[in-house]
Amino acid sequence: MNRDQLLAPVFVEMADSLTEDFDVLEFLQRLCGHCMELLSIEAAGVMLADADDVLRVLAASDEYTRLLELFALQHMEGPCQECYRTGTPTTSVDLTTDKAARDWPNFTPAARQGGLAGANALPLKLRGRTIGVLGLFRASPLPLSADDLALGQALADVATIAVLQQRTIVAIETERDQLQHALHSRIAVEQAKGVLAERWNTTPDTAFQTLRAYARAHQQSLTALAMSITDGSFDARAIVPATASPTEAPRAGRPRPSGA
User: By three-state DSSP, how is residue 256 classified?
Assistant: First the structure.
């Protein structure tokens, strides 16, 4: 099967990041594998930036390349670092030259020791935002063809969209979980407020202010305290109710909402 025949299923596979079992590590590992199959290279690696804007090695075609990329991160050297800093491709790097040795005195000999003489780094970038780098390494110092570079960048672009899409899904799920937790918390507080208001024969506002003051004074979570009151694990008699008229009414000018 020639390269053109391989391309369609590869791009379909890489674009499918909406499945429930999407695994970004496995996805990026497959990206390295596809690069090895489709491009004239001997090794590939992928780095993604973390929340602190620091690159991390996520996938590599082999163990030596993974260690090489880690070594590059440790010394802040190499074409991938440069690519990430500039947000532009760093291509046709000849690691056998004196310039490469001067620019990256730690990375270059380590790459040469592993039999790598040429390097290219392509940004994982979308709308001006660079989230990582795809490193492509050759045993030869000769540059990759324009077609190989264009295909490599296309693979990097599809990977970028997939990773960002997955991050968005995770963020939405996290936000949804946080909202659900907030709703549960509010319900617990409302229930505890009602229990205390009825027990003390006071208004819900007074009950809430007393509940909140007690939680603060005892360095407790308001939600946890409310839940312990409603489930009976906390004796609410330990809370001294604020002074209020038994027939206290809502403040003037603050009518109850319709239906309340």
Answer: coil
